[in-house]
Design the sequence.
């Protein structure tokens, strides 16, 4: 027998062994045990919880970086509204004074040793009212839907928290441990409200055993091969970096341009950066998500996620080509969002600039990402500078009672959902709590369609009435276990 016959036999044997290993690992990659569910009845005063959200939405609590554009009276109106809507909360709970724009209540429990924090923010982003189908601040209800800015982001969760605590206090319930209700008023502009609350905790040596803020939700068709609804709990969030790329020249008349204009060079730099994506990484939040949802996926994807040691490269290529949410879980992303040049169409700009928003994954920092952008731009004449940003958050634990409480409340409220950790690609107020605890969880208590998610920060923001009620049910189930 020729030597190459032995080579072929050897290659075939190795290939068969590899296939056997892949198939065995796939067969063993079975779903994890389901999250414990609470079968007790949870009664929600539906009429009341819908009415209170409507009253909150009517407050035009629009925040701006430029404070002169804000209507301070609307923020005061919101603050003064709470005692009328939630008399039991405001009469029973201690109001905590903090330095920033935030409303904080302490609901005293039987113990102060393991306090929890339930968070939301009551400021909202601006609206272009002429582009809305309904008035943005009238909380109009039609066909089972409430229209209004903040219905999804995040007055619905604030409303759910307050209604849950109101009903529990009214029933005589006292939590095992202190519960803080912490609501920021400047989250949308990266303000100091939430950080001032954390300052208060640090100064008073209070270490939260659990923190819940906005983040994931109950969604469908977001994970390859999984048709069942997924209740996603963010255990970390990406960092952010805003970058300015600028070229300074002498300018001049457009009739005699150089071989490559400032705009042309910036455009080339943009393509250079987009064509060289940041490093692919499977971080702990993504790994936890794959290990949970991957086991519930169709056979092909289950095989991939059970054998990432072999298919990691293929997954990387898939992410590069498709972009979107899965890609954002795996690498630092770059989105070019603004460009400016000359004020005249026939004038070469003396200064041309382009701006990008980066979302940083664990392993990258603002400094390292800035240097990476400089290298990828590959033009020494382009000045790359940081505008603003923050590093990736601390990663929270999933092997603890705190996570189990949140997961159980999700599973008990949305009983057909698969509950899973995930990485939040947006930024939230709760990142500040990473300074004092690793028990921070990001879950917006709603089941949202892709269309509904698209109205957050956009036109025609609205929420189904059933989602308003369900949010209150979730927080009632969670608060009753704190």
Sequence:
């Amino acid at each position: 027998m020729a030597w190459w016959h032995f080579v072929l036999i050897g290659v075939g044997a190795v290939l068969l062994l590899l296939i056997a290993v892949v198939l065995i690992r796939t067969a063993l990659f079975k779903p994890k045990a389901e999250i414990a569910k609470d079968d007790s009845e949870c009664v929600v005063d539906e009429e009341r919880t819908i009415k209170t959200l409507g009253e909150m939405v009517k407050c035009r609590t629009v925040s701006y970086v430029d404070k002169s554009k804000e209507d301070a009276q609307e923020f005061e109106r919101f603050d003064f509204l709470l005692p009328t809507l939630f008399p039991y909360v405001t009469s029973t709970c201690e109001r905590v004074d903090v330095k920033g724009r935030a409303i904080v209540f302490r609901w005293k429990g039987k113990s102060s040793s393991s306090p929890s924090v339930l968070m939301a923010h009551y400021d909202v982003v601006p609206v272009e009212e002429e582009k809305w189908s309904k008035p943005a601040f009238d909380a109009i209800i039609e066909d089972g839907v409430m229209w209004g800015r903040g219905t999804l982001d995040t007055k619905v969760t604030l409303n759910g928290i307050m209604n849950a605590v109101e009903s529990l206090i009214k029933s005589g319930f006292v939590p095992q441990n202190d519960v803080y209700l912490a609501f920021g008023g400047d989250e949308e502009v990266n303000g100091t409200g939430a950080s001032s609350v954390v300052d208060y905790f640090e100064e008073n040596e209070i270490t939260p055993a659990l923190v819940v803020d906005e983040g994931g939700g109950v969604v469908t068709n977001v994970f390859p091969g999984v048709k069942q609804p997924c209740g996603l709990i963010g255990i970390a969030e990406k960092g952010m970096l805003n970058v300015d790329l600028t070229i300074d020249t002498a300018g001049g008349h457009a009739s005699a341009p150089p071989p490559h204009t400032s705009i042309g060079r910036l455009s080339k730099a943009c393509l250079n950066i987009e064509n060289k994506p940041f490093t692919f990484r499977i971080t702990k939040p993504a790994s936890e998500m794959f290990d949970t949802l991957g086991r519930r996926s169709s056979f092909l994807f289950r095989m991939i996620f059970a054998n990432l040691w072999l298919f990691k490269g293929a997954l990387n290529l898939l992410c590069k080509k498709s972009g979107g949410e899965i890609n954002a879980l795996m690498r630092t992303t770059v989105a070019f969002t603004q460009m400016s040049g000359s004020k005249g169409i026939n004038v070469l700009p003396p200064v041309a600039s382009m701006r990008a928003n980066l979302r940083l994954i664990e392993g990258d920092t603002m400094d390292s990402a800035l240097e990476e952008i400089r290298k990828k731009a590959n033009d020494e004449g382009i000045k790359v500078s940081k505008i603003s940003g923050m590093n990736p958050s601390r990663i929270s634990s999933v092997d603890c009672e705190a996570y189990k409480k949140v997961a159980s409340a999700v599973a008990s409220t949305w009983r057909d959902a698969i509950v899973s950790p995930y990485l939040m690609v947006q930024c939230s107020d709760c990142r500040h709590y990473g300074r004092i605890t690793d028990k921070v969880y990001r879950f917006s208590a709603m089941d949202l369609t892709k269309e509904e998610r698209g109205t957050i920060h956009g036109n025609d923001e609205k929420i189904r009435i059933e989602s308003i009620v369900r949010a209150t049910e979730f927080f009632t189930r969670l608060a009753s276990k704190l």
